[in-house]
Every structure is written in structure tokens, then in C-alpha cells.
Amino acid sequence: MIPYTVNIKLAARTLTGTLNLQNKTAVDWGWQGLIAQGCHSSILIIDPKTSQTIQVLERHKANVVKVKWSRENYYHNVSSPYCLRLASGDASGKIIVWDVVSGTVHCEIQEHSKPIQDMEWLWNQDASRDLLLAIHPPNYIVLWNGDTGTKLWKKSYAENILSFSFDPFDPSNMALLTSEGIVFITDFSHSKPPGSAGKKVYIASPHASPAHTKPAPAAAPVPTGAKKALNKVKVLITNEKPTAEAVTLNDCLQLSYLPSKRNHMLLLYPREILILDLELSQTVGVVAIERSGVPFIQVIPCAQRDALYCLHENGCITLRVCRTTTTPEEAQNVYELMYDLRSQCDAIRVTKTVRPYRMVICPVNENSAALMVSDGRAMLWELKAQASKAVGNPSSGLSPLYTPLSFCGSPLGPNQKRIQDLSLNSMIGQTLMAGEAPPPSSNQQDIQLKFLLTGLLSGLPLPPFALRMCPPLTTKNINHYQPLLAVGTSNGSVLVYNLTSGLLHKDLSVHSCEVRGIEWVSLTSFLSFATSAPNNMGLVRNELQHVNLPTGRCFAFRGERGNDEPPIEMIKVSHLKQYLVVVFRDKPLELWDTRTGTLLREMAKNFPTVTALEWSPSHNLKSLKKKQMAAREAIARQTVSDAEQTSVESSVISLLQDAESKSETSQAISAREHFVFTDTDGQVYHITVEGNTVKDGARIPPDGSMGSIACIAWKGDTLVLGDVDGNLNFWDLKARLSRGIPTHRGWVKKIRFAPGKGNQKLLVMYTDGAEVWDTKEVQMVSSMRIGRNVNYRILDIDWCTSDKVVLASDDGCVRVLEMAMKSASYRMDEQDLTDPVWCPYLLVPRAALTLKAFLLLQPWSGTFTMDITQVDMKSVLQDPELSLLQRCLLVSRLFGDESDLHFWTVARHEGTQTSPPNHLDICHDVLCESSYFQKFQLDRVHLQEVKRSSYDHTKKCADQLLLLGQTDRAVQLLLETSADNTSYYCDSLKACLVTTITSSGPSQSTIKLVATNMIANGKLAEGVQLLCLIDKAADACRYLQTYGEWNRAAWLAKVRLNPAESSDVLKRWAEHLCSPQVNQKSKAIMVLLSLGCFYKVGEMLQSMRHFDRAALFIEACLKYGVMEYARMLRSLGLREGAALWASRAGSAGQQLMEELFQGEGSVPEAIPGEEGVELSQDSTE
């Protein structure tokens, strides 16, 4: 008969624990909506919405030091689908690029053998989205193709590079943070390495520069105490190397460009954050911590608003928002960019082993943050806005924070549904420029921000661990079986995990010291023992606890015993869970009845010392039950044969007998069971236990080839002994044969048979790894060894099903592996998750795109139908008031689609002009309206002017003011030049020129001639200035473009030209961006979109094959010429939708209509493997 084994399907998985110090920087939150985190040599993928681990990637041999999600800044279609791609770098210099859904590797990259310092996917060019830039210590920057693993170029620098940051507004600029200062690179390109060594800038530490105190301008008010403190904390940025005592060490922790406004950078020090304006290389803002405050570890600048998320050493996350100045008087007195503290979350308790490592924020919405703690916890905080109670609290000195009453960028309809706190820019209104009136209160609301803890993931505590899997699945317990794993920890608690979901089922605080072993006595209760540290006599306190899982009740199993006795070595429960043997180090063993909790026998003093012990699987329960049944039947017959008994009475009697028999089977039967043990000489003893009688059986003399026996395992007719020298001895009890095999792997720590009838696999644990043996064939099935195929030491092992093993390792993880013991990542779609996860990236490409088409537009059905789990989203998406542009914005947020989000943000803004004009945020830079952009630039120059501290700074400010047309202020600055300066004469003349310029013909033509000559002779900036003086800024822009200064020209057009001229300049720029050598068509589209050239945008989207975006855009522009979207819908199997678009295209769509409905009544063609799509299609019809 074939042995019948039921196998509950458990996925291979890893339960992770505490982090290594090298994992500190290895965390990233991607546009895809998932968090990746390094834990020792594995990488966890966490879903922050449901706070569960949905994948663990294992391939690295060393600790993971960096992880980076690829960016989603490209157009998605079937050939370039939504996919989860992650790069991870480890301490041995290896980079692996993963396909996270399947857990497989795209490519492996190795250059040097030192830890990867930093890496980033290049996101801002259309040529390729596979490019990965990495820092290989000490001083190399290498650009890789992350799909194939080929090296594109490599460049070395003079100093050690710590990290880098890209300018979000100009992909050719990047800054490297080195051990001595900062290196600015302005010619970064993916096609060739940077040509120059970059511009080096040294940073003297903020407190070490006595020379740098700027004389206060006479008119300025005397600074208050706080201002004085801020003025001290200026940073000296020089191009010369500072003297040795001025800069001891570059203690700058981090450098980042601000994504919210151009040419600004932040430097983080433990006690302050400095905001630099890079045009002046000058500090324009300081966020300092008072003396008693907690130092910073990390700061993340936001893009949607000028705000900073800061992480402090006590694990507190604070949000600081840039202060807005409402009146011109206030604006005149502003000396710094002020960042006000608007919200903070609770701190954590920091100990020697528990400290905050890193924080990440959601890049799509920027309103949730995750904190990674060294003990393996991940805390998920969400920012919530609530209407403020007080009408502006004057004592706090903070201006009120307003929230815009709009949804997805458009004003809210009278009864339109909205999603609260969708993203940072829908929670906080725009920063007001100086002198701008605050908008009417009707479409604003005064709010306060709060952090709310919405999720918490915790890991295993520090190793060592003791593992024990609950009794195996059988045909009897199949209805209520749960695969529970008990993990005993070093702090005395026992964690019980459910291995189907991988989640913690119970955390029980059972002992006061390290748990040494666990034995289950039923599916819902177990015994665990712990021993305290020995006293000077070598005696300990033994704790043996019985724990009932459903109630959590635990009691001391040995009652008052346990103080001052030799330590317990092991506990063994018999197969029928009737008896328990407790083995001590220097004391005879005890035999207990587990059902009643009574001591059956304490062995005599002369009892041999036990080195290994195991219960026999054979017992006489079946024969006992047969006897009992026979006896009971006899009684029943006797009863029935008495004829006087009426039928009623007999039924009562039978009920009584039933009850009696039930109680007997549960208590009275004590079956006979046996156990074997070995003594120090290797002699095997056989002992029988029945009820409370203990009989000594046969003794088998020691086997000469074996050393001291360390462990025994017994199943069926096979008995296996393992010794301290690594020999395994297989006994076949039926055939009376024994076979010894030397494994040459040292001490055999533990051996266990696999569950399941007839399954004779054996798991063997050594000090350096583990093996699986087949005892029928007596041969090894699989093996793992530290240093060869894994880099962790195994602490404990067990079987969790008939074909899976579970290992605890010293890297703090517990792994469920296949029998082959190859640690492998699993497919995410095979996971059995407790909560459903919203992540379109997990779908096959066609399904993801169908879902997107479904969410965006359903013109083929009159109303908008959906079947999606997210309830609040569902009601909003079905809301008839939701405009198409709002819907496109919302879906791009749901999908975390970076390029879609940028496109629709600008499109929404251009397409809907509201009565109080709401501007595009300044993070869109040149795409903003000219008036808003000008105000921002003037504000900025004003700040630069206040901050200037040298002649260079003053000169730059004067130049900017001239370009902005602020001639009076520029003249004042020019006249400040001191007489001993070489430029004194020049500046004085320039001041005269600026004040005397008249618009007479001859002077204009002279100046124009001089300007063109200057430009021709390489003095571009000076020539442009002169042209701006005589209001020929359009010519100036043309010259700038001719000489390749495209960004400068765009800036000048925005601040000086009227809309028509400015539009010409920007259109030329767009053409330049489209040229093959630049290939930034997506940026060109944004520029054209901001100019309102909708027709051109539609054409370009079409030519770039961005069909669905084009169709939606044109639909939004109410022009219908959209064939390709119809074809795309048809290819996805959405026939009705395709027909609708085709009918709109008039004659052009005739052919497609015929194709769609040839042989009327034909069913829409099914797509193999897309049943889900077909169903949803039918439901909408």
C-alpha cells in the first residue's frame, strides 16, 4: 500500500530579525509604492499600506548596504510595462539587479571588492531607463547598464567619494560629497564620462571660521538673540583648501539638491541644516537645533512643497515647512529662509541595541514616512491634516497653514467627493511670494498637521533561537490544523508564528532567561524549559513551563522544584504525548506524566549518565483499545438480554455507557511506551513505561567504531545514532543490521526524522551546517555548509512539513527552505497574503494596462463602474463630478507613474484656469507662469542680497538685478565697490551707464553694437546684460541659445519677455530638446504643454507612440481624432470601447469598425491567459 501523506502547502519564506549596522543605509521607497530594506544579506520588500512583508530576496553573500528602486519616469505600454526592478549593492562590492515579482536576477555586477557607497538610476533622459550610476570605493564612479550588466564608462576622482546627488532640474549637474568637501560636476552625460575633474569646494566646519563675520549693513535692525545665533552658524565655502586647524574633518552627514526649487542645496550637520543658494555659493537658510535639542541623522527634502522631513537621533520624525511672508514690510526684514516646525511624531526608546537607522518617504504623495529601527522594526507614519481649532495662535509665532479646497488640482465641486490627505500638495497650500495678497478664505482652510502611526512591522529578537514545529498534519486533525512554529528566544519569550502567512500568531513571555528547548504536547500546548546562569557551585534555577496557546495560560510544570539544581539538558515527550523525560547534567533523569502533571519516577543515584535519549514510535494503544471495546460490547449485550428492561431505560443506559467510554478513552488508558538512551560509554539501554511502572529492558553493548553518542532518532524500524566525531550509525531493527557512515563534519548536534508515514528522510545538524539523508537508501540528499553556499551559522533545525525544513541562523533569521536547502526567493504571486495588496506592478503587463484603461475612461458605458477593493478610492472614482483631468491625475498617483503624474499636473493646470489663479508649484521651474516665476526670482535675489558677504557675491547680485530689470537697486550695489578694488573704475562707469540710458536711437544702436562685439569675443554674460539694459532681451535670448546656454535663455525669457516673445524662445528650446543628440522629447512636451501648444503636444505624443496619453489628452481638449487608442483598447480585448473611439474618428475609423464587427454577433476575441480581463469586459457591457 502506498504511504498516504497529506502535505499542507507552505511557501518557502524567511522570517527576518534585527538589522546589521551595515544595513543602516539600505532602504528605499519606490514610485511603485513598496519599500525595500536590506537585512543582513537579504532584502525585504514591504507593502506600507498593509504593513506586511511580501517578498524576501536572497542571493547576496555579504551584508546589503544600498538598495534603489528604478524610477517610473517613462511612458508605460505593453513593451515597456509596469515592472518591479530593484538594484542592491553589498559590502563586497557586488550589485544585483532584481526582478522582484519573480525573485529572479536580471544581472550581477562586480567592479571592486569594497562596499558600494551610493547608487542611483538615471531617470531624466529618454534614451534608456536601464542606466545605473554607482560609487565604487574609494574614488570611482561607474555607469552601468542595469539590464545587461555591461560597463558604459568609469571615472576616478582625487578624493574618497561618500555620496552624490543629482540636480533634479538639470541632469548634467551633479554634486559629489567627498571626504574633504564637495565636487560639482556640470558636464555629466550618460554617453561619456565627465571630462573635467569638477569644481572643488571646501567646507570649513560651521563653528571653526572666526574670520567669517559679515559686517551688518547700517540700515539693518540690530539682530535679536536668535538672529545672532543664526549669524554665527554661517558656513564658509571656499575654493582654497582650508588650513588644518580650520577643518578637522568633514562632518557633513548628507548633501541633497532641493527638488522644490532650482539651484538650491541642503547640507546636513548633526546640529544644523544649511540651505545653500548655488548661484552665490552662499548660505540662505539655517535650521539649527537649540542646545538641549536632539541632533539630526538624516533629512529628506520634498518636491511638492518647500518642506523638509528630518529624522533625529531619538527616532522622532519632524516636518518643517518653509515660512511664507505675507506683507512687503515683513519681506524686507527677512534674513533667512525660515523652516518652521509644523509636526512631529513620537520618539522611540533608544538603547544600546535599539536605535533609529533611516527614514524614507513616499515619493508619489510625500505625506507618509517609514522609520527603520535597528531591531528590525519598521514604523509607518502618515501625515494627517485637521482643521485648526484656534484662529491662528499668536503665542506660537507661526503663521497659519492653509490647505487648498481643491481636489487633484481643480477646485472642488459643490458636492464632489474627495480623498482626504491625498498628497502633500493637496494638504498644504502654496508658499506665498512677498507682497502677494493671501487668497480669499472661501477656498482655503486653516489646518494643523499630525503624524499618525498607521503600521508597524516587527522582526525576530536577537539570536540564539530554539525552534520546534507543532505536531504534523494527519487525517484526524486536518480540519483544525494550523502550521505553528514555536521560536524560543534569548530574552525568555516564546514567539509562535503561523507559517502559512508568515505572521506572528502569539508572543508569549514565558521565562526569565534564555529558552533552551521546546516540546509540543498537543496542537495547542507546549512545554518549554530555560536555565539561568550557574552560581559558584555550578547550580542553576531550572524553569519548565507548560503553555496553553488559546488561553495563553502558563504554569510551572515541576511545581516548586527547580531552584539550585544541576541544569536541565533536554526534555523529551513520548509519541502518544503521555510521558515526559527530563534529563539533567549531573543528576538522574525524571519521568513525568504529561496528562496529570505528576512525577512518576525519579531515578536512583546510581542511574547511568544520559548522553542521548529518544522515545520509540511503537506502542500498544491499538491492542488496548481493542480489548476495551470487546469488554464494553460484552457489558452492552448483557444489558440488552435482560428482558424486563423497557426500551426507554435501555436507551438511557446506552447514553450513560457512551459517556463513560468517552471519559475512559481520554483518561484511563495508559498505553505502554518505550525509550532508549545511551550512557557515556556508548551502551544503549531500553526502558519500558506503562502507567506508573518502569521496567528495565535489554542492553546493547557499545559499537566500537562510534565515539560518544550525541543524539538518537527513531522512526518505524530505523534507529539512527550520531556521535561527537561526525559518525552516523543506521540500525535496521527488522533485519537486525547496522551500518556506520563517517560524515567527517564533526559533532552531530541534532538529528530529526521527517513527518509523514513512510517518509524516512533525516535532517542532521552539525556545527558548520546541515544535511538531509535518506535512511532507506542510506545516502545524502542535500547539504549546506557555512562559507561554501551560505554565510550564516545554523543554530537550530526542524522539519516543518514532510518536504520543507526550517532553520534558525545567527544572522537573526528563521528560514523555511525546500529539502534541497538552497535559499531562494519565491514568486510573489504564489504568496498566501493575509491582506490584499494594491500594486498594479504585480500584474502581468496586459492586465495592468487593462486595469489602467478601465480606471481612466469608460465611455462605452454610460456610468462609471468598478470593482476595486479600496473603498474610498472607489466612491471617488465613480463620482460623476470628477473631471477627466482629475481622474488622470488620480490614476497616475494610484499607479505611482512618475511621467504620467508630471504630464497631467501641468496639463490640468493649463487646461483649467480658475478665477483666483492658482499657480503651478515652483518645483516645475520654467513651466510656471511668468508673473509667478518673476516674483520668485525677485524674492530670491532679495535674499541673496541680504546674505552677500564678499565682492563676488555683490557682483553676482548686481548682474541678476540688471537682468531682472531692477536698475535702481543694481546701481546702488555697483556703487558699493570700494576704491581699492580692481573693478572700481569699471563698476562706477557701469553705474553711470545704467542710470543715463535713454531710448534715443543712436545710443541704442551703439550699445547694441558693443554688445554683439562682446558676445562675439567670448564675453557672453556681459553682452547679454547690455542687451537687457536697452530692452533687447529677445535678442539676448537668441544669442544665449546660439551659444548653447538653453537654460539661461529660458530663464531670461520667463523674467523679461512678453508672452509672445517668451513663447518663441521656449518653442525653439523645445525643438532643441527634440533633436536626436539631446533626445529629451518628454521634457519638450512639458515645455510645449506649459505654453498651451495643445495641438503640437497631441502630435508629438502621437509620434512618440504614447497613444493612450494622446487620446486622453485630446479627449480632454475635446478634439476627436483618436484611432490608435481604439486599436490599443481592441488589442486589450475591450471591444466596445474600441468601437466607440473608432466611430468618433469618422471615415478613418470605418475600417476598424468593420474589423471589429465582421460577422455581426461574433464574440470579442479572447486573449489567452486574460480571463480576468474578459470577465470585467462583459460586466461593463
UniProtKB/TrEMBL annotation:
<keyword id="KW-0206">Cytoskeleton</keyword>
<keyword id="KW-0963">Cytoplasm</keyword>
<protein>
    <recommendedName>
        <fullName>WD repeat-containing protein 11</fullName>
    </recommendedName>
</protein>
<dbReference type="GO" id="GO:0048513">
    <property type="term" value="P:animal organ development"/>
</dbReference>
<dbReference type="InterPro" id="IPR057852">
    <property type="entry name" value="Beta-prop_WDR11_1st"/>
</dbReference>
<keyword id="KW-0677">Repeat</keyword>
<dbReference type="GO" id="GO:0031410">
    <property type="term" value="C:cytoplasmic vesicle"/>
</dbReference>
<dbReference type="GO" id="GO:0005794">
    <property type="term" value="C:Golgi apparatus"/>
</dbReference>
<dbReference type="Pfam" id="PF23753">
    <property type="entry name" value="TPR_WDR11"/>
</dbReference>
<feature type="domain" description="WDR11 TPR">
    <location>
        <begin position="951"/>
        <end position="1118"/>
    </location>
</feature>
<keyword id="KW-0333">Golgi apparatus</keyword>
<dbReference type="InterPro" id="IPR039694">
    <property type="entry name" value="WDR11"/>
</dbReference>
<dbReference type="Pfam" id="PF23751">
    <property type="entry name" value="Beta-prop_WDR11_1st"/>
</dbReference>
<dbReference type="InterPro" id="IPR015943">
    <property type="entry name" value="WD40/YVTN_repeat-like_dom_sf"/>
</dbReference>
<dbReference type="InterPro" id="IPR057854">
    <property type="entry name" value="TPR_WDR11"/>
</dbReference>
<dbReference type="GO" id="GO:0060271">
    <property type="term" value="P:cilium assembly"/>
</dbReference>
<keyword id="KW-0853">WD repeat</keyword>
<keyword id="KW-0968">Cytoplasmic vesicle</keyword>
<feature type="domain" description="WDR11 first beta-propeller">
    <location>
        <begin position="22"/>
        <end position="318"/>
    </location>
</feature>
<dbReference type="InterPro" id="IPR036322">
    <property type="entry name" value="WD40_repeat_dom_sf"/>
</dbReference>
<feature type="domain" description="WDR11 second beta-propeller">
    <location>
        <begin position="482"/>
        <end position="821"/>
    </location>
</feature>
<dbReference type="InterPro" id="IPR001680">
    <property type="entry name" value="WD40_rpt"/>
</dbReference>
<dbReference type="GO" id="GO:0005930">
    <property type="term" value="C:axoneme"/>
</dbReference>
<dbReference type="InterPro" id="IPR057853">
    <property type="entry name" value="Beta-prop_WDR11_2nd"/>
</dbReference>
<dbReference type="Pfam" id="PF23752">
    <property type="entry name" value="Beta-prop_WDR11_2nd"/>
</dbReference>
<dbReference type="GO" id="GO:0005634">
    <property type="term" value="C:nucleus"/>
</dbReference>
<keyword id="KW-0539">Nucleus</keyword>
<keyword id="KW-0597">Phosphoprotein</keyword>
<feature type="region of interest" description="Disordered">
    <location>
        <begin position="1162"/>
        <end position="1181"/>
    </location>
</feature>
<keyword id="KW-0966">Cell projection</keyword>
